[in-house]
Specification:
single chain; alpha/beta; Multidrug-efflux Transporter Regulator, Chain: A, Domain 2; Methyltransferase, Methionine Synthase (B12-binding Domains), Chain A, domain 1; Rossmann fold; 3 domains; three-stranded antiparallel beta sheet; 13 helices; 8 strands; 12% strand
């Protein structure tokens, strides 16, 4: 039987179906599909069909002149967040989870999945939107997928034994970025605290009520990602300090808080530039 020539132009001069890409790579379709699911080969879905840009295929072939061992590729030092970002932008929830599973199999810790895979992917997508390179729906789509991934990973962060006390975490009214709040909550749970996650966009009085009604509260943490929410954060922190008689330490962090003096200007007791710094502040009391 004479092998049929692959006609790349069947889709366009610049892209092809995944079936055609598999033929050009000389691999089975399911192998090519796994390349896509693991973020090794960029692809997008159109009219229910996976399609690959010719430029992406050529780059993939240049990096991998022979069919690659998917299992072996999982164990190499790769930028998992870039693979995840590709799946998030494609709206591929199953593929995004496959990337996370592959990273876990390769030895990436659950904590690093949050801080070195999910977070950088979302920051990159947010930056692209801010530059005008992406429509906002891409960020919303990615946030929804990451939220589902975190829902699956969350139980792995629950510690055992006695807790170090209770922490209330949330974002001020007008701050709509809730994923970072949930990430911090899970990471603190892993370190031994009981954490009450209030999510995003919470009125100050509700935040205060939560702190007052939380037993054994040792701190309140305020997340500020958007510069436009700084005024609301300042008002929230002042109200929390007044309501607690300054007895509950209040720590602030997020992309809109750039330094310790910045945190002090907002009225917080300390600046948490990352989770490790926050843990240090909490353990110092």
């Amino acid at each position: 039987m004479v092998a049929q020539k692959v006609v790349v132009e069947s889709v366009s001069a610049h892209e092809m179906t995944l079936h055609e890409a598999a033929e050009m790579l000389d691999v089975h379709y399911m192998t090519a599909y796994r390349y896509v699911r693991l973020g090794l080969l960029p692809a997008h879905k159109a009219a229910g069909t996976w399609r690959v840009l010719l430029s992406d295929l050529r780059q993939f072939q240049g990096q991998n002149p022979e069919p690659i061992d998917v299992e072996d590729s999982r164990k190499k030092n790769v930028l998992w967040w870039e693979r995840l970002e590709a799946r998030l932008l494609a709206g591929d929830g199953s593929g995004a989870w496959a990337v996370v599973e592959a990273a876990l199999v390769a030895g990436v810790s659950v904590e690093d999945i949050y801080t070195k895979v999910l977070s950088p992917a979302m920051v990159s997508i947010g930056d692209q939107w801010a530059r005008g390179d992406l429509e906002i729906y891409y960020e919303h789509q990615a946030s929804a997928i990451v939220g589902r991934i975190m829902g699956r990973l969350g139980p792995r962060f629950v510690g055992r034994g006695r807790t170090k006390g209770s922490i209330v975490v949330g974002a001020p009214q007008g701050e709509r970025h809730g994923l970072v709040v949930s990430m911090v909550a899970d990471l603190l749970r892993q370190r031994g605290w009981e954490v009450f996650d209030l999510g995003a966009d919470l009125p100050a009085q509700s935040f205060i009520a939560a702190v007052k009604n939380t037993p054994d509260v040792v701190a309140a943490c305020v997340s500020v990602t958007s510069p436009s929410a700084r005024d609301a954060a300042c008002e929230l922190i002042a109200a929390l300090r007044e309501a607690s008689g300054d007895a509950v330490p209040i720590y602030v962090g997020g992309a809109a808080v750039l330094s310790a003096p910045d945190a002090e200007e907002l009225g917080a007791h300390g600046w948490a530039s990352n989770v490790d710094v926050l843990v240090g502040l909490l353990e110092q009391g």
